[in-house]
């Protein structure tokens, strides 16, 4: 092990520990979450875990759910995806990107009178399956498409 | 305080389509700065739209929504000249609300 790196890490940890003890951490490090934000769901790593964290048991594939996503995304920083659910009684539409560090990306609630059709821009770290997820009644449905990313968007 | 959102709401028949362009960094918490330190996550966690006192869209977002987020949705009803307002809250507790007139 490189001694220098070790020293660097351990002293850094000590400083952070002291700062935390003294209540000196900047606000960003102790950021609060918005009311109602489903932290557990947004920390999931797969479609199934996301469905469970949202309160469902499992999702089945549905042809009535249409996912719009590009086959190839040249820039992973901005990928336009959209979903339209033709499943009657859809109350929620969500997007899950399988290989992102946090799979669940966005959850839209669809009140009565609003179309179960939303679109947004997302970031993708690498080529991955993208899922649209729709909730109707207490069941979850999904549609999937593979998006190839030629330039990753999660930098590092 | 962040820049205003750009909101476009258009009524066509019995449907109003709303497009929103939000100005926000949407830092994912995955990137590192020049010194190799992780840049803390800073992103919008909740966003909603209200028309005529009724919520017509509400969403929760994770850090993978793109920088300067775009959203499109549509709802039944809506009259030209009425207002739609959109609000968001990020994980630092910052918030912003903007209004647009339906055309």
UniProtKB/TrEMBL annotation, chain A:
All copies of domain Ig-like SoxY, residue ranges: 53-154
Which InterPro entries has this protein been placed in?
Answer: SoxY, SoxY_sf, Sulphur_oxidation_SoxY, TAT_signal
Is Protein transport there in the keyword field? no
Signal peptide residues are: 1-31
> Does the keyword Transcription belong to this entry?
no
List keywords of the entry alphabetically. Signal
The domain of life for this entry's organism is: Bacteria
**Short name of any one Pfam family annotated for the protein:** SoxY
- This one is known as Thiosulfate oxidation carrier protein SoxY
The gene is soxY
Automatic annotation (TrEMBL), chain B:
Source organism superkingdom:
Bacteria
Any Pfam family matching the protein? SoxZ
Alphabetical list of Gene3D superfamilies matching this protein? Immunoglobulins
Task: Tell me what organism the protein belongs to.
Answer: Variovorax terrae
The protein here is known as Thiosulfate oxidation carrier complex protein SoxZ
* Residue ranges occupied by any Sulphur oxidation protein SoxZ domain in the UniProt entry: 7-100
